[in-house]
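Here's what a typical entry looks like (AAA family ATPase):
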Amino acid sequence: MRGRRHERDTLAALADAVETGRSAVLVLRGEAGIGKTALLDHLAARAASHRVARGAGAESEMELPYAGLHQLCAPFLELAAHLPSPQREALATAFGLSTGPPPDRFMVGLAVLGLLTDAAADKPLFCLVDDAQWLDKVSAQTLSFVARRMLAEPLALVFATREPSGRDDFADLPELTLQGLTNADARALLDSVPGNPADDQIRERILAEARGNPLALLELPQGRTGAADALDLPDPGQVTGRIERSYLDRVRTLPADTQRLLLIAAAEPIGDVTLLRRATEHVDIAPGALGPAVAAGLLDIGALVRFRHPLLRSAVYRSASLTDLRKTHRVLAEVTDHALDPDRRAWHLARATVRPDEAIAADLEAAGGRAMSRGGAAAAAAFLAHAAVLTPQPRRKAARALAAAEAKLRAGAPTAARELLALAESTAADEHGRARAALLRAHIAFASSHAGPAPTALLAAARRLVPLDVDLARETFLDAISAAMFAGRSAAGTDVGDVAAAARQTTPSAKHTPRHVDLLLDAFSTRFTDGYEAAVDASRAAVRALRQETRTEEVLRWSWQASVLAAEMWDDRAWSELSARHVRTTRGVGALAELPLALNSRVVVHACAGELEAAALLSAEIATIQEAADSTFTAYGTLTLAAWQGRDREAAELIRTTMDRAADRGETGVGAAIAQRALALLHNSLGMYAEALDAAVEASRDPRNLVAANWALVELVEAAARLGRHEVAERALTRLTRITDAAGTDWALGVQARSRALLARGAAAEVLHREAVERLERTLVHSELARAHLVYGEWLRRENRRGDARHHLRTAHAMFGVFGAEAFTERAVRELRATGETVASRSGAAPTSLTAQEKQIAQLARDGLTNPEIGAQLFLSPHTVEWHLRKVYAKLGITSRRQLHTAL
């Protein structure tokens, strides 16, 4: 630890923070041998009176899912019984302790956060992870997730890792980069090495080669005492390479059996002493072969076999010939229990074989299936890729390569998926295999590039599948329609009408009754080929079927599409019911990757219902999930919320920023229309009718932009009517009337009546205003009801019926005020004042200084959720939730959650 004062001070500050009840995260970066492990040892000694958990990545275990995480969490697994059921089950499945559906990795992350928090409840916990660059991918992602969600727990996570080469799961976490020792410190360390060279030339040579690397200063002097060592040419290699060569020089002085034993230990990743003994007995290595390695300080034998340094292990392994490596892995496979550890046995077999071998390939495929069932998509892909390479039969090879490519895509590695897909395509023996490969290529293109090419690729794949697998073809057509809806004019050579026309030429398989996908595809394809009116019956049938569905998988798979159709049909009750169930189901099963999509729909439902506070809570939750998952999902629902909230600059900036980002991704279809409609709504609320008209024209230009185009017609009629652009308003009203007459719901006919009233005169206008209010009172879309009262009151004032006008304007003012719709509230204020009534403006300022997260937690607590339930929803530990609540109580001047109802 010589010369590491700054680093020691940093670790001391970290320890002090944890001991006072705060969380701390640190990433120690630097080349091999620079002192990261020594600093971890120093921190472990500093925290010896507390709980210390240690783990380390192993290069040979990078393909085994959750290996690193299990190593770190194993001492605390008895505490898993206290976790909420979904978290407990996810963790048990991930660690192979029970069977179940593949766990969502964010649910596993939340479980690990809860587990470590519970472990730190009575005594600070320091989790120290060495060689983090060699953690398996899912372990690294999970620990990174936990590190980003810690806040107020007496818990430290410290990672030691080399400089990133490729993926870096710990980017943007607090870090400390270790540099080489100063010349003076390097000399002092060299002087402390027993038997260090007395020859000044050799010492200078070692100092020059070590470049301040502490491990090099400790290892390079070994065996360098003769005059010839000072005359050698300087070693031009990297410091790491020189250390490895120094280790190898020492290894080669050992007996042959000891060298063979070291290779077996290097190839066996878990350091199992019993397994090592069985392996050495299997190949007749003398029982005393271990002694020289221990005596030379290269191995340490305790509960586990440990190398002096990971560089020694890698040097031994990499220097071996391919023949020796294959023999070694074959031995380890033979002594590994097939029943207790089938995945590790398959892993060794894969490295022991170069020729195709169906039995080994089958074992690897089974290991891949187990990895996938535990949520380890990256590990599953690695096993399946090995299986494909070793498969002798071409058709089976293609199937396994395709499965590996699918797993790679699921793991977020489209480039690797594309490489495996090339193998699948080159060995596919039939058209069905080639068609499945074409479908995967389309999905890879959609996941890894601009959205524009995706509809064309998906359409081609769907057409190819029609004669081979019509069920899969129809699912692919529906995916292509969704892609084309968002791509809009960016779709390269294919628009949503092309996809819909091709889809209508297919019929569901006669082997079963029409599935949800069939009903949805019929509705969407009819909508995009024959128009709105023709699609009403098919749309209602699809929505009705989904409302009656109870199977979790079906609810998760199709709720978003059904919700879109319900909103398109102006069916507020079905829309609300479907969206609420979608959120409940995703929460219930822990499908957190699906949750932002479900929440997004629900945000719009709440906004239309005038429940802007509830919508804001869900919008904040989407942001929390995106931060935790590093997601690029575009939450278009937040634009509708922002427009209803009516905060001019804030909303306009959010809408324009979202539009720019969507355009960069090639989403110039329905997403752009949603943004333009939100902008039109915002400008209408502010009385900026010219700007509202421009935005509404853009939003309604393409009637194939579902929901947004129809809703934009409402904004277009109002803006054009206010500007005296009656011809423009009449054309929009004609389109709106045709659509809303076909829908026939109170919501549809209510907004139609309100729109018609804006262009009517005298008694006819009053009849329409009354009809709008009466119809919208029977709906859940209270925001539209408040607007109906507002425009009715505005009309009455212009008719000089001030008393009648005040009744409706007061109602609108009260409703918008409760909603938190600031711009519409101010519009109602201006109208009331014009009637001669005195009314104060609403400032819109928050009554307290709560942060967004504090407000979110406070309202969830007010609604009766427990701290664990709030933590599960917001990706926080219960301890952190309680810490936030204490701050909330202090700011609100209250002492308990019972008082939150009044205080908020």
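Residues 431-448 form the longest helix (18 residues).

More examples are in the samples folder.
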